[in-house]
Design a protein that fits this description.
This protein has 15 helices and 18 strands. By secondary structure, it is of the alpha/beta class. Homotetramer.
Length: about 450
């Protein structure tokens, strides 16, 4: 059982293809089911601490995993009961059912137990659960002190994170063979509890991964303020937003930050303030230009955005600037950081999961796209993507997006490639929020960025 950070994310179709490759190499469906069920049983036995276990099984192969787990637990002398929603309807599940020598109770009337294992539906579910099933599963989850889902919790859509049933979250989800989109996309991720990966002998490969802790390096012995990265932040009608972004860039690793065009005095003295001009963006030492936070949407804002777009420097584009962008693909290395409303304005309804929509937006714009939210997806034009799903909900407050843009700009100026800078920035932003605790404001968040960065060295 391993953490899922950095692990590949496979859709249902990709998972079936990986299973098919394993079978072509000599494995069998029954053999893969045996590995899965025994791995589940080992974790359930360890976590149950001797308490009675109830495993609820569906008719498909997910239910087959449950029957195997039940038989393995009984063989170890553990108290275990099985309840079924219906008879098995696949050959492998039938064989697993025959390997369980105990009685099978009827779902959803079965009595609750201290530990409940949900093996009802696997990655193939694509429709809402019936009211009777929802009620029965909900009752068993609420009555248990520990609930464990096999692969995915009942009632969630594997590929897009949709929630088909109004069910309580489980304590733990054991992902079989690979992480699935349902484990990291909302709202289904909230139903999964903690997620851990169980290896079952399948080779999982994907361009999409779970975001992980960045691997950063301290400045080398000969570093100076310019070699560490110069960030230029363009201010506008709401200078406080640009000030937040500039402060975040300074705390996020940049050696030098210039705030262009701001009249605000609420800044650390280390942030250099200058009048805005197109010439100010011509400094070849600039590693990243950030435009958008508090920019406004008037003629002055449009002129400043145009200066940024034509300055030839790597860009981070956020906030108001996203509303003024045209549809022309990026001509210089660019990172776009839209929230849901800005994403819809820029790209319309692309269809598919949030991962697929972000990948499509990255290809269309020729930019790295950071689609923000409770689940943040980062995608590059070449198809790579990362999903960060552990950000504290306290980030839902004004100004935190400006802080994120500043951190990403700093990571870009320091020398990370576009995709890595965006992924690193999202992780540092979320970790800063975790360190800040509850009910912070964006100004408080900036102060915790150095500690988050230090944790990556």
């Amino acid at each position: 059982m391993t953490r899922i950070d950095g692990q590949p994310i496979l859709t249902a179709a990709q998972m079936r293809a990986a299973e098919g490759e394993a079978i072509a190499a000599g494995a069998t469906v029954e053999g893969l089911m045996a590995r899965a069920g025994q791995a589940v049983a080992e974790q359930v036995r360890r976590l149950a601490a001797g308490a009675e276990v109830l495993i609820v099984c569906g008719p498909g192969n997910n239910g087959g995993d449950g029957y195997v787990a039940a038989a393995a637990l009984r063989q170890k002398g553990h108290a275990v009961r099985v309840a079924a929603l219906a008879e098995p309807n696949t050959a492998a599940a039938m064989a697993a059912r025959n390997g369980w020598l105990g009685s099978v109770e009827t779902m959803p009337e079965t009595a609750a137990a201290p530990v409940m294992v949900d093996a009802l539906f696997g990655i193939g579910l694509n429709r809402p659960l019936s009211e009777d099933v929802c009620h029965g599963v909900s009752r068993l989850i609420r009555a248990a002190r520990l609930t464990i889902a096999v692969d995915v919790p009942s009632g969630v859509s594997t590929d897009d994170g949709a929630d088909f049933g109004d069910l309580p979250p489980v304590s733990l989800t054991l992902a079989l063979g690979a992480v699935k989109p349902a484990h990291v996309l909302q709202p289904s991720a909230a139903r999964c509890g903690d997620v851990r990966l169980l290896g079952i002998g399948i080779q999982a490969e994907s361009a999409v991964r779970v975001a992980s802790v960045p691997k950063l390096q301290a400045p080398h012995a000969g570093a100076h303020k310019y070699s560490r990265g110069l960030v230029a932040v363009i201010a506008g009608r709401m200078p406080g937003a640009a000030a937040l972004a500039a402060s975040a860039a300074g705390h996020g690793g940049a050696g030098y930050v210039r705030l262009l065009g701001s009249a605000t005095d609420r800044l650390p003295h280390a942030i250099v303030r200058q009048r805005f001009s197109a010439d100010a963006l011509a400094d070849p030492r600039i590693g990243a230009v950030l435009v958008g936070p508090g920019l406004g949407r008037d003629e002055v804002a449009n002129d400043r955005l145009e200066a940024a777009l034509t300055c030839g420097r790597a860009l981070v584009i956020d906030g108001d600037a996203l509303h003024m962008l045209g549809e022309e693909p990026a001509r210089v290395p660019t990172i776009l950081t839209p929230h849901a409303g800005e994403f819809a304005h820029l790209f319309g309804d692309l269809g598919g999961s949030k991962i697929e929509r972000t990948q499509g937006a990255a290809r269309r714009s020729n930019a790295v796209v950071v689609f923000k939210g409770a689940d943040t997806v980062i995608a590059a034009p070449d198809g790579r993507a990362a999903v960060h799903f552990r950000a504290p909900s306290w980030l839902a407050t004004a100004g935190t997006g400006d802080v994120l843009a500043g951190i990403i700009a700093a990571q870009l100026a320091v020398g990370a490639d576009m995709f890595t800078a965006a992924v690193n920035g999202v992780w540092l932003h979320a970790e800063s929020a975790r360190l800040a605790g509850s009910s912070f404001i964006a100004d408080d968040l900036v102060a915790h960025v150095p500690a988050a960065l230090g944790a990556c060295l």
